[in-house]
Amino acid sequence: xxxxxxxxxxxxxxxxxxxxxxxxxxxxxxxxxxxxxxxxxxxxxxxxxxxxxxxxxxxxxxxxxxxxxxxxxxxxxxxxxxxxxxxxxxxxxxxxxxxxxxxxxxxxxxxxxxxxxxxxxxxxxxxxxxxxxxxxxxxxxxxxxxxxxxxxxxxxxxxxxxxxxxxxxxxxxxxxxxxxxxxxxxxxxxxxxxxxxxxxxxxxxxxxxxxxxxxxxxxxxxxxxxxxxxxxxxxxxxxxxxxxxxxxxxxxxxxxxxxxxxxxxxxxxxxxxxxxxxxxxxxxxxxxxxxxxxxxxxxxxxxxxxxxxxxxxxxxxxxxxxxxxxxxxxxxxxxxxxxxxxxxxxxxxxxxxxxxxxxxxxxxxxxxxxxxxxxxxxxxxxxxxxxxxxxxxxxxxxxxxxxxxxxxxxxxxxxxxxxxxxxxxxxxxxxxxxxxxxxxxxxxxxxxxxxxxxxxxxxxxxxxxxxxx
Length: 469
Hints:
mainly alpha
């Protein structure tokens, strides 16, 4: 079930919220758990068993780790393997077979496998739980229903943010639901929904029209338009989903971590990764980078650890070499910035021109990265990038469409809106205290909701990009 669907917005969410608000606190967790299971089973009932097995493995495994400390390393190893086995099979099995066939000239048949939605997200959440128990940072959850609620809580089940158990364990046991939280959550949900329906979907249509063609068959300008359109689509699609998830969490009394903090204003790649998909980058830092030694054992070890983390980051996104190359691309610049001690950028210490140059540098890095990320294969990515930089011979006779085919008046308006909304212009819009300003903001949010609802009702183009991951 999509957040941006009529079924969710006008049937599922109102019913669940009504039941939640009219019942006693003791029933809140059971209602949310039942709603979460229904939410997942609505679209993928045959894969519900995989998630339930994941819950059972981690419930029993954490109890073993806590009650049998002498063998906790062994238990942790097998629990992590058990979690990853589902992920590896559904996400990477055919990828491994294809590469074995190519390398060794084999003829092993691949399988018809459909990846369960959200498996990358809830698997990482489950792993964070057992590691937290192993480290003694939290107690093993004795109530299997509370653990199930943590792993399959519907607001962040399908595409994050990746919620770590130690951040939410107390909220599962006790949380406050009040009018102010519900209102703030609804407003945050509307902002996310409008990001998705009005900006991401419009940019996605433009990007798809361009990326579906041979890079020889469109101009350099069109190539740049496609790269920017996908850059905006990806950000507003994923940050929009995160906004909706955070808003839904507030409605039901939960506070999830922020997942995006205006990443496109970054002045370094290091800063970009402190602002982009924060729940994933902090997960890798906490559970991979630091256990490997982090930056405590010299520069060579630090470079090794960073390289490993960004290769894993690429693989986490999918079973394609373009994702791996994208991870390596970012890792290279993270390592360079680490060697030269380039961290978050302090605007006050540098001139306007230095700030501008650093910002342009960062924009080039992540736009080139997104082209690699979006491309069907590495060959297509290189040809597309060569087109962007004027290094590809173009077949002008094969140009099928004029510029107006890719970007109409509405698309141009959304391009401008995308640029504005990538900056923290409206950062504190929901925290305004002035009475009359709040009224104007509420009117604007109601208008956005109706525009988004109209788009849901009329638009068949409504994918969530990160559902694939």
